[in-house]
Amino acid sequence: MQRKHENQTGKTLLIIAVLLVLGIGLTVYKNESRKAATTQQAQREADLKAQQNRADQEREALKKAAEEAKAKDILSTALKSADDVMSRWDDAVTIATSTSRMSLSTPIANLQAIKRDATALTVPPCLAAGKTELIKGMELMLEGYLDFMANTGKLGNVIAASKFDEAKPHIDNYKAARSACPTP
Q1: How many CB atoms lie within 10 A of CB 167?
Q2: Residue 101 belongs to what domain range?
Q3: How far are the Cα atoms of 19, 112, 117, 122, 144 from residue 107, in angstroms, in the given order?
Q4: In the predicted model, is pLDDT for residue 109 greater than 70?
Q5: What is the dihedral of CA 117, 120, 124, 130, to 10 degrees?
Q6: How many CA atoms does the CB half-sphere of 104 hold within 13 Å?
Q7: 0.85 cut: is pTM over it?
Q8: Residue 28 lies in a domain
Q9: In principle, which of 93, 120, 148, 175 could form an S-S bond with 160, CB 3.0–4.6 Å?
Q10: What CATH number corresponds to the domain at position 171?
Q11: Could you tell me which residue, 132 or 8, shows the higher pLDDT?
Q12: Does a structural domain hold residue 126?
């Protein structure tokens, strides 16, 4: 009987030991599973964050590209407006130059209107100094035509020629500034 009791006690201890090992194994397994799940969750979160960062960078790049395109569009429009004013001015000067003294009032009025358009122009920074030069040159040319109309004979011719000569460097400075502006 004692042997039976020892046998039973041994079996009980063996069962307890097996259960204890299984319990410890199960606990270790659960802990490892939690660690793996936590690691996977952290990896997913890191992947999502990286994906979000890439999306943000792409969005910023697109926004920057759109702003650059808009700036180029604004620059292009401003330069086209300035070119249009200069072209109209050159055409009006050609007409005024070939008009008689008595008939100059209409061409001068046209030149004055073009000068007002030039004054109202919004230009990019690369053309700001050029615009000032252009307006100064236009004013001198207009003064020359008005002096030519007011003074008959050679005096009118001399005064007008002097004003035209004085205006030329200003117009040339505008043209140099215009050619220095970037092409959109």
Answers
A1: 21
A2: 80-180
A3: 112, 9, 15, 25, 13
A4: yes
A5: 60
A6: 20
A7: no
A8: no
A9: 148
A10: 1.20.120
A11: 132
A12: yes
The Cα 131–Cα 133 span in angstroms is 5
Residue 50 lies in a domain: no
Q: Give me the pLDDT at residue 6, please.
A: 64
Continuous segment of H or E residues that includes residue 182: none
**Cα–Cα distances in angstroms (integers) from residue 71 to residues 41, 64, 124, 157, in the given order:** 44, 10, 10, 46
Q: Rounded to whole angstroms, what are the CA distances from 33 to 21, 38, 72?
A: 18, 8, 58
Residue 95, C-beta contacts closer than 8 angstroms, at least 6 positions apart = 107, 110
Q: For the chain, how big is the Rg over CA atoms in Å?
A: 44
Q: 172 lies in a domain?
A: yes
Q: What is the pLDDT of residues 6-53, one digit of tens each?
A: 667 777 888 888 888 888 888 888 888 888 888 888 888 888 898 888
Q: Who's near 163: CB < 8 A, 6+ residues apart? A: 140, 141, 143, 144, 147
The stretch 82-90 carries a mean pLDDT of 93
Mutual angle of helices 128-150 and 2-97, in 10-degree steps? 10
**3-state SS assignment for residue 61:** helix
Q: What DSSP letter does each residue of 27-43 carry, written as one string? A: HHHHHHHHHHHHHHHHH
Structure tokens at 135: 């307006």
Name the domain count of the chain.
1
Cβ contact 168:136 at 8 Å? no
